[in-house]
Design a protein that fits this description.
This protein is an all-alpha fold and about 110 residues long. It contains five helices and no strands. The chain is elongated and about 70 Å long. Pfam families: CCD48.
C-alpha cells in the first residue's frame, strides 16, 4: 500500500509539472498576443490601409507555412506577426511620444474594423 501511495504521488508530481509547463506556455502566448494587439491598435490609429495590413498578415502566414521543429506553431505565428508589425514603416514615421502614449479607451484591446 505504501508503494502504491508513492507511485500515485509520483504521478501527481508529473501531472503538476506538466500543468505548470502549460501555464507558462500560455502566459508567453498571452504576452505575445497582447504585444501584437497593441501594435495593431497603433497601426489602426495611423489609419493603415486594409491592403497594407493584409499584406503584413499574408507575409506572416507565408513565412510560417512550414512550422519549425520544436517550436509551437501558434507562438511562431504570433512572434512572426509581431516582427512584421514592428517592422512596419508607418510605426517608425510617427513621433516618438505618440507611439508611446496609450489612448484612453474603455477597452484598449478592442479593434474596430
Amino acid at each position: 500500500e505504501l508503494q502504491q501511495k508513492v507511485e500515485e504521488t509520483e504521478v501527481l508530481k508529473m501531472e503538476l509539472q506538466m500543468l505548470e509547463t502549460e501555464r507558462v506556455r500560455l502566459s508567453l502566448v498571452e504576452e505575445k498576443l497582447l504585444d501584437v494587439l497593441q501594435l495593431l491598435q497603433q497601426l489602426r490609429d495611423l489609419n493603415i490601409s486594409k491592403r497594407a495590413l493584409g499584406k503584413i498578415l499574408l507575409s506572416t502566414l507565408e513565412s510560417c507555412r512550414d512550422p519549425q521543429p520544436g517550436k509551437a506553431q501558434l507562438f511562431e505565428v504570433l512572434d512572426t506577426l509581431q516582427q512584421e508589425l514592428t517592422a512596419c514603416e508607418l510605426l517608425h514615421k510617427q513621433p516618438l511620444e505618440q507611439a508611446q502614449s496609450p489612448r484612453s479607451l474603455s477597452n484598449p484591446l478592442v479593434i474596430s474594423c
